[in-house]
Amino acid sequence: MPQNEYIEESIKRHGRRLDYAERKRKREAREAHKSSQFAQKVTGLRAKMYNKKRHSEKIQMKKTIKQHEEKNAKQKDTEAVPEGAVPGYLLDREGQQRAKVLSNMIKQKRKEKAGKWNVPLPKVRGIAEDEMFKVLRSGKTKGKSWKRMVTKATFVGDGFTRKPPKYERFIRPSALRYKKAHVTHPELKATFCLPIIGVKKNPQSPLYTQLGVLTKGTVVEVNVSELGLVTTGGKVVWGKYAQITNNPELDGCVNALLLV
Amino acid sequence: MTENSHVIAQFYNEEGTASGPALSLPVDVNPEQLALLLNSLLGNEEDPLPYTFEVAETEIANTLDHDIIQQGKQSTEETFKILYRPQAVFRVRAVTRCSSSLTGHTDAILCVSFSPCGTMLASGGGDTTVRIWDLNTETPQHLLKGHKHWVQHVSWSPNGKYLASAGMDGLVIIWEPRSGKQHAVLKGHSKWVSALAWEPLHLNSACRRLASSSADGTVRVWDVVKKQLEFSMAQHTAPVMCVKWAGDGLIYSGSRDKTIKVWASTGPYPGKLVKALTGHAHWVTTLALSTDGVLRTGANDHTGKIYKDEEEAQKRALQRYEQAIALNPERLCSGSDDFTMYLWPNKSEEVEGKKAAPKRMVGHQKTVNHVSFSPDGRYIASASFDKSVKLWDSRDGKFVASLRGHVAEVYQVVWSSDSRMLLSCSKDSTIKLWDIKTKKMKMELPGHLDEVFTVDWSPSGDKAASGSKDKTLKIGLDEKDRGREKAWREIEVGTKEHIGNIDEPHGV
What we know:
The complex is a heterodimer of chains A (about 260) and B (about 500).
Chain A: H1 6-14, H2 20-41, H3 44-72, H4 96-99, H5 104-113, H6 129-132, E1 133-138, E2 144-150, E3 153-154, E4 170-171, E5 180-184, E6 191-201, H7 206-211, E7 213-214, E8 219-223, E9 239-244, H8 248-251, E10 255-258
Parallel strand pairs in A: 2-4, 5-10
Antiparallel strand pairs in A: 1-2, 3-7, 5-6, 6-8, 8-9, 9-10
Chain B: E1 6-12, E2 23-26, H1 31-42, E3 51-55, E4 58-59, H2 64-69, E5 80-86, E6 95-102, E7 109-114, E8 120-125, E9 129-134, E10 139-145, E11 151-156, E12 163-167, E13 172-176, E14 181-186, E15 193-198, E16 209-214, E17 219-223, E18 228-233, E19 240-245, E20 250-255, E21 260-264, E22 273-277, E23 284-289, H3 292-297, H4 310-327, E24 332-336, E25 341-344, E26 359-361, E27 368-373, E28 379-384, E29 388-393, E30 399-404, E31 410-415, E32 421-426, E33 431-435, E34 440-445, E35 452-457, E36 463-468, E37 473-478, H5 482-489, E38 500-502
Parallel strand pairs in B: 1-5
Antiparallel strand pairs in B: 1-2, 3-4, 3-5, 6-37, 6-38, 7-8, 8-9, 9-10, 11-12, 12-13, 13-14, 15-16, 16-17, 17-18, 19-20, 20-21, 21-22, 23-24, 24-25, 25-26, 27-28, 28-29, 29-30, 31-32, 32-33, 33-34, 35-36, 36-37
């Protein structure tokens, strides 16, 4: 029993023997043989006590080994019943069919949880007026410059007719008009090409909303009757909001994310 | 212009033989007058039977004048061939509203079935239990546990004594519905069991034998009393999706290997393959027999009479069966993933030894999921994944009408016992009631929160039940049951084990 810590101090100062690790390993490996030799030689009361101790150690060791084995061996859990019960006529069919309809229960729960105007793109880049409009000069000597042409994608309704060209202030070129949008359902990750019903709100300015300009972040209403959604009252849902996620004037198509 | 003019008409029955002499009828005669006339001609004035009349395949709904002459279907110069068809004597009222929503299942409900007498209802679900519901109080009666996996199909024996349930674990369990105890567990299938069919009552009054089809390609016939396998038929090479036990003792099994195999259940070699019906180009999803309605109910008919004696019940069942096949021979209709259906003729329809060819019914644009004959054997209704239900004539397989209204796949279709109305359930969570006379939707029953997987109409006609993925069972009532509603409001709503959602104003 060392008094004070002179052994530890010496180890700290001078380190250990060079073959310390090897000797330690070999000594530990011999432990099993040594203890078994001792158990065979010892007699009397000492033997009884020693055997008792070894017996309890053996039981402990067996328990830990069994525990380790259980962790490794994966047994089929007979109690667990898999999710997604379907009747026989729906088994072994591709999941493609499921992509078109989301269960009404989940939709209800989600509506209750989230606020209604929880949009995927809360902030968008501000667009300056000179980027949005191109000035068109008119008049005999092209002196008047009150006409503007929209340089971004727009949506005009079904029954749109141009105002008389002399009084048209904002011109929306027909090449930049879009009727359909590629709408992605956020959970199902399925994309559908749905017709646009109208522009609900353009975050840049109410003027753009009125003109029907489609820029990134605009909330539009799309016709979802193709998806076959039904409310609990039995009514068919045919219009839903979606937010535009790309720059349509650069891509040539309108991509949107459905707001469920 | 044609108010007082007359036409020469002759009544013909369904087989084409004339009954009664040629008559001179005024053109403004309506169906009620025609019925009176026909009843007096046939001699049943005391007990008049209802009939429908049609000329040149157009039904007379208003008057002869309005429907036939003014539509230009037939000129007044020729003799009118008025074809009459008997209708069911009893009338089933339309199911108009949901009386209650039964909760209790903890997972989607996959199958629902009324007992042949119409008083008990059994439902099996994804939570591996089968529940029996008491229809008078609309509360759970028994909870039957035993399956280890989803319960795919529940089927009542024709005498109402046993209830069989088939599960994804490959077991067929027989229960005693009145006591709620398990009677037998039939092990043998190595994969999930898809369908069950009991032997008809008129062949065996003890209702001992049951056929089950499984995804391992075999059809096994079990003896319920001995609780063991009788024989097994293993010729299919793909999962067998449906099995039907016909009234003449033949067992039909339709499988995903595109064939339907016909087996003998009696005779010197039970379990022998009698015939293999090929023709479909893809999986066979469903089978229906023209005598399905009669075989399912056994001896119970609309009068609600209960036969205590087995012999009497068997005689009555045989009587009803023979009545049904006298009008139309027992035929099989199969629907498939190849968007078509085949109407297979009966053996008795062979002409001069040459086998009659099956009639191909084309028109659906997606998989035909469920096919059902009307109880009087006149029409076939088919539900398909193309969102429509189509009606076909069962004699020659001709298309009659298309019933549109659903916005998603139609899963199942079920007839009322008087063959006047049709219920269809769909993935869009609604159930629609269709009127056959007008071929239009009569009633819509929304209210489920998720896909409706199964629907059934009680054989006694007054109730319909539907089971859905939203774990509830809804029972629909007709208008006249308002008096009873007051009675069960006083009953205390359940113990902590079961909750019955009475008084929920769904669809009212």
